[in-house]
């Protein structure tokens, strides 16, 4: 498996950790931000709502963006909103970073899933997808309790810094290893009659999804 897949999975791990880690830090955030406990708890709800709304929206938005640009855009946005969240003293700003972070998470995951299957041979696509989504599983098992523990030891802002820091290797990996030109999400495209008439003998390919990765 290409090493970049594991770094993309690391980014998914950071994003999954961010979604739920605040559930163990609600009272600390409420005290620091001088808001009620339910208001602090809504920071987790805001992220969940952002994911629900953002998944289809970001998938459509990034449909024809170059894959590397889409991944970098979503990942850098996710990283930066956690830096802002770690620094802000405003509850409203913190709430906003949760929504924006969720949208970036949704977009990154959609593009990363499409990218993972193009980095490996056809018979390894299932394994590549499982490696990528393994970041979410690991986040639930290790990241969420780890982020909560980190926040309790060094303050809830430390958990935000940790998520931002974990995202950095993935930014480097995307820059160096992801092909820049292919669309983020490929849609079927019919082959013009003239093209099919002159194609070399062999099974016809009717869409870009059938083309080998190297020809994109």
Automatic annotation (TrEMBL):
Broad class of the protein's primary localization: membrane
The residue ranges crossing the membrane are 38-63, 70-93, 99-120, 132-154, 160-179
Alphabetical keyword list: Cell membrane, Membrane, Transmembrane, Transmembrane helix
Q: Which InterPro entries match?
A: MFS (IPR011701), MFS_dom (IPR020846), MFS_Efflux_Transporters (IPR050189), MFS_trans_sf (IPR036259)
Supply the Gene3D superfamilies for this chain.
MFS general substrate transporter like domains
Choose one Gene Ontology CC annotation of this protein and give it.
plasma membrane
Does the UniProt entry include the keyword Nucleotidyltransferase?
no
Domain Major facilitator superfamily (MFS) profile stretches: 4-216
Q: Where in the cell is it found?
A: Cell membrane
| Domain of life where this protein originates | Bacteria
The UniProt GO MF terms for this protein read: transmembrane transporter activity
Pfam families linked? MFS_1
How is this protein situated with respect to the membrane? Multi-pass membrane protein
Which PANTHER family is this protein grouped with? CHLORAMPHENICOL EFFLUX PUMP RV0191, PURINE EFFLUX PUMP PBUE
Protein name per UniProt: Chemotaxis protein
Q: Which organism is it from?
A: Streptomyces alboflavus
């Amino acid at each position: 498996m290409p090493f970049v897949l594991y770094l993309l999975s690391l980014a998914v791990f950071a994003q999954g950790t961010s979604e739920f880690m605040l559930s163990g830090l609600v009272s600390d955030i409420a005290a620091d931000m001088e808001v009620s406990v339910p208001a602090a708890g809504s920071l987790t709800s805001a992220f969940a709502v952002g994911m629900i709304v953002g998944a289809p929206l970001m998938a459509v938005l990034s449909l024809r963006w170059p894959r590397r640009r889409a991944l970098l855009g979503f990942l850098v946005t996710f990283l930066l909103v956690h830096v802002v969240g770690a620094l802000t003293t405003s509850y409203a700003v913190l709430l906003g970073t949760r929504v924006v972070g969720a949208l970036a998470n949704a977009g990154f995951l959609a593009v990363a899933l499409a990218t993972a299957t193009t980095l490996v041979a056809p018979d390894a696509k299932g394994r590549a997808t499982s490696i990528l989504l393994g970041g979410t599983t690991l986040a639930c098992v290790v990241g969420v309790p780890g982020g909560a523990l980190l926040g309790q030891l060094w303050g809830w802002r430390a958990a935000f810094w940790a998520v931002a820091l974990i995202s950095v290797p993935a930014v480097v990996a995307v820059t160096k290893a992801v092909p820049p030109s292919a669309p983020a999400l490929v849609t079927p495209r019919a082959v013009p009659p003239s093209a099919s008439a002159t194609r070399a003998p062999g099974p016809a390919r009717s869409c870009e999804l059938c083309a080998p990765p190297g020809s994109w």
